[in-house]
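Quiz preparation item.
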């Protein structure tokens, strides 16, 4: 039998190296099998979901991405982009009581359904602009809170205005009836206005003061008691003219 040379010995794997290679291969196979059986989970955290908006001219995809908490963005107040949109529902007028009417003017008259409404027509009133859609589950969850706020802050001149995004009029009107939404709703025809307002998901709420300046923005729903406290703080700050 030939005597193995030094070169032959270097090429021949030892029993230990063979065992290590088999172990590595086994771990890799098990990992691949687990990924096949259970692929990586989608991003899913507690809180409201947000539908991501694509490039200009594209449809609004229905895919949900759920942030851990609705994101509140602090920024220097900037002018709210102007718009004129068609009224889908004029809502109901919530007049201030006699005790507060002198201090707080009644909200501006909203045109009838089908007529145009310009943001400039609401100048002099704090405006809460809520981007929403009937197919958006977090929008449905927070809507009763916004309705309640629209009633409570009407006496302080606040106008809550819903901007319906990527929806059909039939679905939107059915939603308004089902959820008792009685503040004004206008229709957003494309994604240019949401992009101008920095909307990256639904729902998004933008707080515009009486001078037409954006004071705060909430990406994601106002959720539960903490969400209601946040909404109240933002409304109080909006009425007082303070930035968040």
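Solution:
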């Amino acid at each position: 039998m030939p005597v193995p040379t030094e070169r032959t010995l270097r090429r021949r794997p030892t029993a230990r190296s063979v065992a290590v290679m088999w172990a590595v291969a086994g771990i890799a196979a098990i990992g691949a099998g687990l990924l096949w059986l259970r692929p990586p989970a989608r991003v899913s955290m507690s809180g409201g979901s947000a539908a991501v908006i694509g490039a200009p001219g594209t449809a609004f995809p229905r895919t949900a991405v759920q942030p851990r908490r609705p994101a509140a963005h602090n920024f220097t107040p900037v002018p709210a982009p102007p718009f004129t949109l068609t009224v889908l529902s004029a809502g109901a007028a919530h007049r201030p009581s006699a005790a507060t009417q002198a201090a707080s003017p009644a909200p501006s008259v909203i045109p009838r359904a089908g007529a145009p409404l310009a943001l400039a027509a609401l100048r002099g009133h704090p405006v809460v602009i809520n981007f929403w859609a009937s197919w958006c589950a977090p929008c449905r969850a927070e809507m009763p809170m916004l309705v309640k706020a629209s009633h409570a802050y009407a006496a302080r001149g606040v106008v809550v205005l819903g901007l319906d995004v990527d929806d059909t009029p039939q679905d939107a009107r059915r939603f308004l009836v089902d959820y008792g939404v009685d503040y004004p709703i206008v229709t957003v025809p494309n994604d240019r206005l949401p992009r101008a307002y920095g909307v990256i998901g639904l729902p998004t709420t933008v707080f515009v003061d009486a001078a037409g300046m954006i004071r705060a923005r909430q990406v994601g729903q106002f959720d539960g008691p903490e969400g209601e406290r946040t909404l109240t703080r933002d409304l109080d700050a909006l009425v007082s003219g303070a930035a968040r």
